[in-house]
Here is the input.
Amino acid sequence: MDNSTKRSDKAREIARAALAYFTEKGFQGTSVEKIAAGAGIGKSTIYEYYNSKEELFMAAIREASEQWFDQIGQIARQTEDAIERLERIAHAFLECDEEEPIASQ
Here is the structure.
């Protein structure tokens, strides 16, 4: 694995950690310090990958979108029936709201 792949993997790992906080606490209620603590890294490490909280927020949104579209693709491959696909996608969408919150820190 080359350095750019490692860097990209670390950036995605940070974005995933941020996504959990932004989802639960919103943009204003989430601090870079909390994200860093939750990811088990220092605040300065986040700034090695992202220039600002806003940039990290956008990366978290991209990560969420990629996860959602991957899930839709998996559902679509499970059945040929269009109605069943829509029902499964709707069910998955409704389950998104029931996910476990992050641990309070």
